[in-house]
């Protein structure tokens, strides 16, 4: 599928330098880099065959209670499957979610001007991509990029996952999902980065907040205000 010159099936590297976002380097201005037009690509990759079992430090404290029994669990015979998605809010207050579940893949040319390209269940070299139409950036108040477990593990910090944001100018921004001492014992989802307005600028802020639950917990933590119910399960896009 091709829209406005975008290869939706591809996931090649952008020809930019790359910086790792960290506690020390946790915010980058897209405005200052001249990257508030064109296509902003967000890419998720992980190691599909990573060892997803095994405990972490016993002293680590969970932020939330464990998910109920209907959550994805670690299965040694099943490859790791992660999902990339985002919550968005427009300047007029309109809010929504882009995700594979429920076929909420969005639209690049029309509102919400955000499109999930496909649901990668294999941890391929191209991973999963979200394309954000920055030519429509005047509509965006905030966009929260998140990753969640879909199967094969109950801890996304153990599968070599990383999210890289490719703007049209300036360096690519890489965020590794490696966990921290405050990460829940089973980190099933993560609010990775927030693209939002800060005065006259649009900035990318590294969040890297882990949750033992899924989208509804991220929603509550960031006061998004969407109404969540049981979903229809993962769907091919």
Shape: globular
Count the beta strands: 15
Tally of separate helices: 1
Largest sheet: 7 strands, mixed
Portion in helices:
under 10%
End-to-end gap: 12 Å
Quaternary state of the chains = single chain
Rounded Rg: 17 Å
Strand line-up in the sheet with most strands: 3-13-12-5-10-9-8
Mean pLDDT value: 81
Summarize this structure as a short list of keywords or feature phrases.
237 residues; mainly beta; seven-stranded mixed sheet; 1 helix; 15 strands
At a glance:
This protein has one helix and 15 strands. With 237 residues, it is an all-beta fold. It has a seven-stranded mixed β-sheet with strand order 3-13-12-5-10-9-8, with no helix packed on it.
Topology:
Blueprint: E1 2-3, E2 6-7, E3 18-20, E4 27-29, E5 39-45, E6 81-90, E7 95-98, E8 106-107, E9 114-116, E10 128-133, E11 140-151, E12 162-166, E13 172-176, E14 189-198, E15 201-211, H1 215-221
Parallel strand pairs: 3-13
Antiparallel strand pairs: 1-2, 4-15, 5-10, 5-12, 6-7, 6-11, 8-9, 9-10, 11-14, 12-13, 14-15
Question: Can you offer a commentary on this structure?
Answer:
The protein has 1 helix and 15 strands, in the order E-E-E-E-E-E-E-E-E-E-E-E-E-E-E-H. It starts with a strand and ends in a 16-residue tail after the last helix. Strands 3-13-12-5-10-9-8 form a 7-stranded mixed sheet, with no helix packed on it. A 6-stranded antiparallel sheet has the order 4-15-14-11-6-7. The chain has a two-stranded antiparallel sheet with strand order 1-2. With 237 residues, it is mainly beta. The model is unreliable at 1-14 and 52-74 (pLDDT under 50). It has one helix at residues 215-221, and strands spanning 2-3, 6-7, 18-20, 27-29, 39-45, 81-90, 95-98, 106-107, 114-116, 128-133, 140-151, 162-166, 172-176, 189-198, 201-211. A hairpin with a 5-residue loop joins strand 12 and strand 13 (172-176). Helix content is 3%, strand content 36%.
């Amino acid at each position: 599928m091709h829209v406005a010159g975008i290869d939706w099936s591809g996931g090649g590297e952008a020809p930019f330098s790359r910086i790792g976002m960290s506690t020390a380097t946790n915010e980058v201005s897209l405005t200052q880099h001249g990257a508030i037009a064109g296509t902003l690509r967000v890419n998720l990759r992980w190691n599909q065959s990573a060892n997803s079992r095994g405990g972490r430090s016993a002293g680590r404290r969970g932020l939330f209670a464990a998910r109920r029994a209907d959550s994805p669990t670690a299965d040694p015979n099943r490859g790791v499957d992660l999902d990339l998605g985002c919550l968005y809010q427009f300047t007029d207050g309109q809010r929504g979610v882009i995700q594979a579940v429920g076929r909420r893949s969005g639209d690049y040319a029309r509102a919400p001007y955000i499109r999930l390209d496909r649901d990668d269940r294999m941890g391929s070299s191209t991973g999963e991509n979200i394309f954000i139409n920055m030519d429509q950036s005047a509509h965006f108040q905030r966009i929260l990029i998140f990753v969640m477990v879909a199967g094969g593990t109950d801890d996304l910090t153990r599968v070599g996952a990383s999210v890289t944001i490719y703007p049209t100018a300036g360096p690519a921004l890489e965020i590794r999902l490696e966990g921290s001492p405050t990460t829940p014992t089973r980190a099933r989802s993560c609010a990775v980065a927030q693209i939002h307005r800060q005065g006259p600028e649009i900035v990318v802020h590294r969040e890297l907040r882990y949750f033992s639950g899924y989208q509804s917990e991220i929603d509550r933590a960031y006061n998004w205000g969407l109404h969540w119910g049981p979903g229809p399960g993962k769907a091919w896009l």
